[in-house]
Amino acid sequence: MFLIKKINIKFLVFGSLLALVIGLLIKNILFFSSVDNKIETFSVDKQINFTEFVPQKTQVSNSSQNFDYDLIGVKLGVINSSVFVSKGGKQFDVQLNDFLENKYKLVSVSNEEIIFEYNNKKIILKNKFNNNE
C-alpha cells in the first residue's frame, strides 16, 4: 500500500509540473504571436556636439623650470620604457604612461628626449643618457 501511495505522489508531482510547463508554453506562444513585429523609424531630437569630446591642444614647454626632479637614469625598451628620477632624497621609477607622484604623466621616452605632461603642457627634458653617443 505504501508503494502505491509513493507512485501516486510521483505521478501527481510529475503531472503538475508537466501541466505547468505546457501552460507556460501556450501562454508564450499566444503572447509572441500577438506582438507586432514591424520596425519603426526614429529621429534624434537633440544634436550631439562632437567638438566637446575633442581633447584640448597640448602646449609645449621646452623648459623644465617647474620640474624639480633630477634625471638619474633611463631604461629604453620596445614595450616597457621607464625613467628614474630623484627629488629630496627620494628616487622614483616612472613607467611609460604612469604618473610621477600623481602629477606628471610620462608620455614619451627616446634616446633624444623624455616628455612629461602636466596640465596639458608638455615638459621636454633632454636625455643625458643618450645611447647614440
Description of the structure:
There is one protein chain. This protein is α+β, with helices and mostly antiparallel strands and 133 residues long. It has a domain at 58-126: SH3 type barrels. 25% of the residues lie in helices and 31% in strands. The chain contains 1 helix and 8 strands. It has one helix at 2-34, and strands at residues 59-61, 70-75, 82-87, 90-95, 99-100, 104-109, 113-118, 121-126. The chain has a 5-stranded mixed sheet with strand order 1-8-7-6-5, with no helix packed on it. The chain has a 3-stranded antiparallel sheet with strand order 2-3-4, with no helix packed on it. The longest helix is centred in the N-terminal third of the chain and has 33 residues, at 2-34.
Main attributes?
133 residues; alpha+beta; SH3 type barrels; 5-stranded mixed beta sheet; 3-stranded antiparallel beta sheet; 8 strands
